[in-house]
Amino acid sequence: MTNPSEVPFHCEVENSTENGVKVTTVRCHGRLINQTAGEVKDIVKPLIPQGGMIVIDLEDVTFLDSLGLGTLVGLKVSAINEGYCTLKLQNLSPRIQELVKLTSLTKLFAS
Fold it and tell me: Which InterPro entries does the entry link to (predicted)?
């Protein structure tokens, strides 16, 4: 059951250029869980072939479950395999950092 005061999950997409490289920042808000992970995938997956850098900002993510983490891993692997862009996570809460560390994914997201 969700807390009624909690913000419904949503993402905002912001485009910019840094040192001549296209940067797309996807700011996520709320709980990145089973029911909302598809939304992130639907937003980020089409950005990968466009190249540049994709930054997924998790500063306002209040909870991340295994499917949410699995979605982030899948997007990172797609970015690596397709070779068009760099995908990185930004502003991970201490809890999410610990989850990434416990699942031995630190190296994957470090690059």
Answer: STAS_dom, STAS_dom_sf
